Fold this sequence. Notes:
With 420 residues, this protein is an alpha/beta fold. It folds into two domains: 204 residues, Enolpyruvate transferase domain (UDP-n-acetylglucosamine1-carboxyvinyl-transferase, Chain, Alpha-beta prism), CATH 3.65.10.10; 209 residues, UDP-n-acetylglucosamine1-carboxyvinyl-transferase, Chain. Helix content is 31%, strand content 25%. The chain is built from 14 helices and 24 strands. The strands form six sheets. It has a four-stranded mixed sheet with strand order 22-23-1-24, covered by helices on one side. Strands 2-15-17-16 form a four-stranded mixed sheet. Strand 20 and strand 21 form a beta hairpin. It is globular and about 60 Å long. It binds ligand EPZ.
Amino acid sequence: MDKIVIEGGKRLSGEVKISGAKNAALPILVSSLLADGWSTFTNVPDLRDIRTVCKILENHGATVLLDENDSSVIRINGSGLNNFEAPYDLVRQMRASILVLCPIVARLKKARISLPGGCAIGARPINLHLKGLEKLGAKIELKHGYVEASAEKLIGAEIYFDIPTVTGTENLMMAAVLAEGRTILGNAAMEPEIVALADVLNNMGADVRGAGTSEITINGVDSLQPVNSRIIPDRIETGTFITAAALTKGDITITDCEPSHISAVINKFELAGVKIKSEKNTIHVQGQDVITSVDVKTLPFPGFPTDMQAQFMVLMCAANGTSMITETIFENRFIHVSELKRLGAMIKVSGNTALITGGAQLSGAPVMATDLRASASLILAGLIAKDSTSVSRVYHLDRGYEALEKKFANLGASIKRVPE
Ligand code: EPZ
């Protein structure tokens, strides 16, 4: 296992290119199961989770070709689909594997997928995925830690999500596109990744309308064609670099990003006094001497994303007053707090709220990553902590950030990856 060592105090400046979005790539790569023939995906981030999802697709019989000259190009052929089972040892590596459930039922009429289980940030139930698939006519049983689903034919239905679920919406979209008749997804998630998946499905010949709103209407079709698709930029990686520029009072130009995907984040940074100028696919960030404390509540899109909560908390540790962060999406997403406090942060947690007293001069220490976005927040804290911070268990980071330490080093950070 590697660790990342940072010598704090460097002001970051320069240009950084954003990679493709993990949370768009995962459902879009899975959607290739819905068509026979070769689909080509570009701007795919080179991540552990991407390699995992490719293994899962191959397990079902798809053929996956990684371009030997360019890791951001992946070609997948869904013709060879022949296995309806996704085993525990694959699914446990990545919860999002549950995204194969609906496409496999739609194409093979049955599926046996290991239950994904929870993770550090919460129980991560999939009851809404299963309830929706049942509404489309599938028979669902939970046996020996597996979901067993079968349906001779999927019939369009009205599905209402009790809470907006991102992968739940994606899963049911991928079932409804091949169901007979019309499906309406109510209280659907509205994230940019949902819109990206809908665009890909429509380019495959599906009829998906309303993606990006809380009501998505899907008219089923008989079959879908393979597609060529470019993965949208990662809005959370973009927010992570905005945080780094603000923290280090730096001057960073972020390219190949999509400012409209992170309006709520940009709004909060501007309220904190950060100078941000957005153009087409570029954001110019100038950190200021004074960071103003700002309260944040995480919400489904278009609200402030939960995946930016840990990163923003680090900014509030360096702010000039007291701020409150309320986490409304996941029940245990403050694990990074105890590690930040080892660096000298002044944070008090009560239930789903964290009270941050700013102005602490953080000092370097060994800390441990516990989940993907917590790892990023510890690296951000290391950028401003005095002396040396070492972040262990960075395999969490490698799941969702492409060569983050190299990108920070190119911006002037003193940061390196060393074997633990
Ligand atoms: C997606 O997870 C993302 N993952 C997460 O990113 C992100 O934090 C999350 O959406 C929220 O934006 C991917 O897209 C691969 P949800 P997902 O279903 O779909 C509850 C990262 O760091 N719920 O939108 O699993 C659930 O417990 C990861 O990249 C049910 O109760 O999240 C949560 O409280 C972390 N029943 C809320 O809904 C269900 O059947 C939202 O979860 C499904 C969800």
